[in-house]
């Protein structure tokens, strides 16, 4: 593998020049904040433990700061970009700055939430600076759609990072925490300051590492069934589970029955439960439905 030129990555002046040439003004609507620091993108790639044989998918590559750093380290990179202008310009940026790796880059011009397949070999890693306003749904969609993704490292708003990596009992533990944990072991993997972005956001950013579970959660309930319980439990998070799950179960008494069968106190609240406990609750209702179905 030929090593890329030392100046192949984008610096602050490069990012601004590229943006000016394309007439791009970062928009709040799409949560666009471009990384302008080469050391930061290399740190992200290191933290993501990208290997030379990895096939990496990146969501929201923007002008290509992180994309170039990923191409330095991975076997292949596929970038998913929704913005027409940015998607149109990225291949030319890759060819100009890293011509020896250009054939190992692919672009998918689409909304990441609509992507169900990718060109080339199956992805082994997801590394992305996710737009703050859609970070959690995009992350969960990608983990569900591409089970070959073993390792994920995303940069998100610090508050979102805290939620994703929260443990049961934490004040910020909620739907994102449980659903991310369904797929992976999740942990905070560092903080990112505001000055490495253009424009500088009004919030701090954090890195979250997700390593896919080698063994899926053991349950007879489906992902949809488990997630339905999670959504119901946190829709009214201040209520006891007996009350919060009444609508899901059909009545408070039926909710209590499902909770007791799962070994969970009806007086508990959603924020105290592990993903395995949510799965046991879902299982009880799923089993009941199977029993009622005519043979």
TrEMBL record:
Coiled-coil regions, chain positions: none
Catalytic class of the enzyme: transferase
Ribosomal RNA adenine methylase transferase N-terminal domain boundaries: 40-214
Protein name: Ribosomal RNA small subunit methyltransferase A
Annotated source species: Streptomyces violarus
SUPFAM superfamilies linked: S-adenosyl-L-methionine-dependent methyltransferases
Pfam families: RrnaAD
Entry function: Specifically dimethylates two adjacent adenosines (A1518 and A1519) in the loop of a conserved hairpin near the 3'-end of 16S rRNA in the 30S particle. May play a critical role in biogenesis of 30S subunits.
CDD domains the record matches: AdoMet_MTases (cd02440)
Residues the record lists as binding S-adenosyl-L-methionine: 33, 35, 60, 81, 111, 129
